[in-house]
Prior knowledge:
The structure holds 2 protein chains of 2 kinds.
Chain A lengths: L5 H20 L15 E6 L5 H15 L2 E6 L2 H13 L6 E3 L6 H6 L3 E2 L5 H4 L13 E2 L2 E2 L13 E5 H6 L11 H13 L5 E2 L7 H13 L4 E2 L2 E2 L10 H15 L12 H9 L5 E4 L3 H8 L7 E4 L12 E3 L6 E4 L5 H10 L3 H9 L9 H4 L5 H13 E3 L3 H4 L3 H5 L9 H10 L5 H25 L25
Parallel strand pairs in A: 1-2, 1-3, 8-11, 13-15
Antiparallel strand pairs in A: 3-14, 4-14, 5-6, 7-11, 7-12, 9-10
Helix pairs in contact in A: 8-9, 8-18, 10-11
Chain B lengths: L2 H36 L2 E2 L8 E2 L3 H8 L1 H32 L7 H13 L2 H11 L6 H8 L14 H25 L4 H9 L4 H28 L3 H7 L11 H11 L5 H36 L1
Antiparallel strand pairs in B: 1-2
Subcellular location (chain B): Cell membrane
InterPro entries (chain B): MetI-like, MetI-like_sf, UgpAE/MalFG_permease
Pfam family, one (chain B): BPD_transp_1
Amino acid sequence: MTGMTRRSLLGASVFAAVGAATGCSGSSSQSGSTSGGATGTLDWWDHFSSFKHLNDDWAKTQSPSLKTNVAHTYYDASKATQAFQLAHQANKMPDVYSNVIGLPLPALVSGKWVHEVTIPADIKSKLPKDAFTEGITQLDGKLYGFPMFSFRQSSTLVWVNKDHWSKAGLDPNNVPTDYAAFKDALGKLKSAGIQPLTLAIGADGGRIRDQVDDMAQAAGFPGYQGLQFTTGEYAYHHDAYVGVIEFLKQLNEDKLIMPGSNNFGVVDARTRYASGAVGTFIDGIWCAGGSKALAPTIVDKLASGQILVPTSGMNPWCYRGRPAATYFVSADSKNPDVAGKLIASFMSDDYQKGMVEAMDQPPLNLDLVASSNVVDAYKKGVEYCKKNVFLMPQAIVKNPAIARVDALRKPVTPHVGNIVQGYLGGSIKDLKAELKKLSDATSADRAQALTKAKAAGAKVSEADYAFSDWKPGQDYGAAK
Amino acid sequence: MTGRSVRLRTTWIWIFLVPTVVLYGVYTIYPIIASYWYSLVEWNGFDADQKFVGLSNYREVFADPLFWNSFKVTLFFMLLVVPARVLLTLLLAMVLNSPKLPLIGLLRSAFFIPVVTTTAIIGVVMRFILDPASGPVSTALTKLGFGGVDFLGDQHLALPTAAVLYVWKFFGVTMIYWLAALQTIPYELYEAARIDGAGTGQLFRHITLPMLKPFLIIITVLTVEETFHNFDLMYTLTGGGPYFHTEIIEIYIYRWAFAASIPQLGHASAAAVIFGLLVAVVGALQLWGVYAGRRLRGDQR
């Protein structure tokens, strides 16, 4: 019998290592998605932290009725984009995934990210007509998904801790609405030895950017994210923006904002609020669900107020666009019909009830909230949104070809959130000049995207962004 | 040796090299080449289309003040960190090299523990420790009457604070380099000098320092290169803030590649290529350092 020599053993090891290495790299033809029908599994990924338990349970309950094993995976929103990038390049996309990629629908369709979906008639009848928009949820008449959340929501409500406010002699059920009264209330919290307010100013500044955009609207800016509806021109240097940021600067200089907020991401700030370390937090309508997930005991201490306005009596009106699809079916899905049925099941009464109880973004049918078993602070926030958040005009609705321009837009930095961080921290001295630079840079970016889109054959123009017939305090172009 | 056996031996050499060549090729060479290609295209990483745009991404990177800001921050961070790391660790290594010091093994391990701790975890934990509202450092400072200090949120303090933490985190690595270098100095030299009446200062000036000169060059160049790769600590500590005051080039690249709503991989790759060239210059210095070190050691012999 001939034994294995040292050399032959090492040689075999080398071949095994090479085999493993080449096996790992794999070719695309071998590594196509095995989800869907191939193995009887339907993969479902999303980034909704408040719905994690709801969706885990829903996957289990839907598996028998869909006759396939529904596997739900939650991804942190900040990591989801990278996960999808890698999955798409490796042909490992899940069958159903949440809309976190950020590309306009035409780019998703041309990039083979999404599959057309068919929604049963009974589900379609539950959805408002505004839920289907050419260029946003459908393209050339083909439907690629539907929104599950109402556009009547806000990132910028005032959330207070009832115990802290009561201790400071303030009424938590009557949160001030104007800047001066709010600042006085924060001063009383400070006098009572309570950290008055926190905001998520840090990380990439994305949350404070959204909040300053909202507060500028409530302060009278007739547009969205610097873009004026009637003229179609960018005006971040509008007095409304300057006023909002100066107000935040005042709060900071009077030491009414919790130290460290300049470096806080959303979760950092919300954790301080949920743990009772601070009396007030400006956050979205989803703060109730998000805080509950972090510290369940906060639920009994939650109270809320509307978005702040500069002076008492001003209308706290805000404007948002038509919502995009919440979920997509992957173009690679081996079982798009079943994937479509899973998405349709999210409109069932049971799932909608679970959604409302998670107190995240409100559902399409806001009336479900009033009759639900959720805290009053959440109901109050939804009620504010229902009355004060309106549908805004959008270039992409006027001309779906604008999606080709959107796909060519590039990030403009520093954005409003960065500017707030820089101004509060002392890096920026001339606020108005910095905002003017942002207006100019954003206009220049749109111009380059328009030029490229036109060169590629898109019929678009700057006029697509102007809506001379827009009126404040109304839904623009809502379906009758 | 016959021609057949030479061929066989060469074949075996190549067979043993294959795993390294394959893995190095796939995980190092390919990404470098790919990033050069990506720097010449406009691509968001999602779309199948990669539009060739020539040097346009480079032009945009060079025209972006925030790129130059990140370049400046990276170099300033290096200037803060390298002298502290190289000189302080030399002093500590000299103390820990003393055969008379008790608990020498324990002390060396203690200084090395931060090196083996995950950098991102250190970043997260330090954010709690340095929290200006409730962290233990600020609480202690407040009790001493100084008030809470926002170490990571203040535009003037954030980078120096990150530098101090970086030096502490990697102190042990440089210390080990120095310990190894110190142990190359023959003990007999010190003994002979002491017999001749040399004091501690003279020993350091006339024996330790000249003998360590070749190592000083190599260790400095290695440390300079290491400070360019600090993404994990800086990202978890400050994310590049406040207002880009700690945005090193690696965070700048990450922001364009992954944090943008529509990622700009072309722009990020162009910045990465320029950053790579900077590192390559330092790498060339490193080679020169190794060469100069060898020459110096040769002269000393």
